[in-house]
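> forwarded from #structure-qc
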């Protein structure tokens, strides 16, 4: 089943909803594609949906629930991916940032 909260999250002059699946990320990606939401709208375990797509998401079958219910449903399904558990990018080192990195320096030497 697919769920979303009401558009209440401001960003870049618009209001946004969160869309989740309690079945799988594959189901979520397929629904978002049908809704016309680009893959870049996916954030760890949900899609950010602009307010102008809210009515269409409901029409396509997403169920409207409070935001806290989204988190409960994700946890219950084992699909929750909190920020603190995502892997950060490796830190930059002087060798990879100075003058284009090791590869660029090797090409300049050749």
């Amino acid at each position: 089943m697919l769920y979303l909260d009401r558009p209440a999250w401001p960003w870049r002059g618009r209001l946004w909803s969160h869309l989740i699946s309690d079945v799988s990320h594959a189901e979520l990606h397929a629904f978002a594609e049908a809704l016309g939401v680009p893959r870049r709208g996916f954030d760890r375990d949900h899609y950010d949906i602009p307010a102008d797509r809210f009515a269409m998401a409901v029409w396509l079958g997403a169920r409207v629930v409070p935001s806290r219910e989204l988190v409960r449903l994700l946890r219950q399904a084992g699909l929750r991916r909190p920020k603190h558990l995502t892997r950060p990018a490796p830190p930059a080192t002087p060798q990879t940032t100075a003058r284009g990195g090791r590869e660029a320096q090797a090409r300049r030497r050749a």
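QC bot note: Helices lie at 25-35, 54-59, 67-77, 94-97, 101-109. Residues 25-35 form the longest helix (11 residues).
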